[in-house]
Amino acid sequence: MTTYRAMFQFNNLPSFEILYIYGNEPIKYTGPPGIIALNLVNTLINGEENSITDFMNKYSYPKVDNKEQTILGQMFYLNKIYEHRSIMDGFIKTVFLFHSENEGSLEAFSNDERITHFFKNEKYEGLVKDVFQALSIKPYFKMPGNIELKGDYLEIEGNAEVKNINLFVTDKANIKSETKSDQKNLIALDYKLLFTWDYESTNMFTLAWLELLLMADSGIKIKSCHKCNAYFSPFPPNTLHCEKCREKHTAQTLYRERIKQRIDHLPENVRVELLNEEREKRAEYMREYRKKKKGLSQKQSKNK
């Protein structure tokens, strides 16, 4: 039987989640809060046939005692995924994006009021209460994973006096780390915040709903990516694109795409003329930007 275990840190910026999945072999994911929930709902947005299969392969183990489930069992599990995915999508739209299909904008509502508004639907309330019967919680006083210490410190053993120290979660344990954020962005943790709650369940949907409710309760934002419409937790809060689109599309690339979309349908001679105008505008902007930057740098040097 698969067991899911999650710990959250909302007091640090950026907020993050550490998720362990103990199935046939242990897997660890580290990243922004909402690892299971947002990846599940994004299979609906992607609209690709293999999205749900990829999700199940990554985050769930539809097997019992190392034997494949019966066809009936697989269909039941898949129906549950579709059901929760649809309701979670409605929850995100209502609570995080402030929109209700029946009542329009909910921006004037408080966070608690939006959550209550969503769960006025008794079916949703009953479904979520049912999955939370499978949740256990206990205090956790140690950092998960192995710890690597970096920074200025006096002593690191026992009751050490520590100054300006950063802790980084590392994966030297026998646990796979499969997310890009694990590979290239080790999560910096405050040494003083060694306490968190350790949540555990054998039900994947329990952890997914826990993620969304804790994020809502803690004021964590969820946005829809301006490029692909996928949901993501932004940091900094004014971020417009999900991590995947940020990797593929720099600001300059997006700028070129917008220009291309604007002029693609025009005759070639008009396109050339407009492109030259845009290049000149861009060059002028960069000249002004460099002047301002140089002036600011000189002013700071004089002040010193």
Structural overview:
The protein is α+β, with helices and mostly antiparallel strands. It folds into 2 domains: 3-240, no CATH class; 251-303. 46% of the residues lie in helices and 22% in strands. The protein contains 10 helices and 15 strands. Strands 8-13-1-2-3-11 form a 6-stranded mixed sheet. Helix 3 runs antiparallel to helix 4 (111-118) and helix 3 (71-96) runs parallel beside helix 7 (204-218). The protein is globular, with a radius of gyration of 24 Å. The model is unreliable at 144-193 (pLDDT under 50).
Helix content: 40-55%
Strand order of the largest sheet: 8-13-1-2-3-11
Low-confidence stretches: 144-193
Structural domain count: 2
Q: What kind of oligomer do you see?
A: single chain
Gross morphology is globular
Report the portion of residues in β strands: 15-25%
Rg result: 24 Å
SSE ordering: EEEHHEEHEEHHEEEEHEEHEEHHH
Number of helices: 10
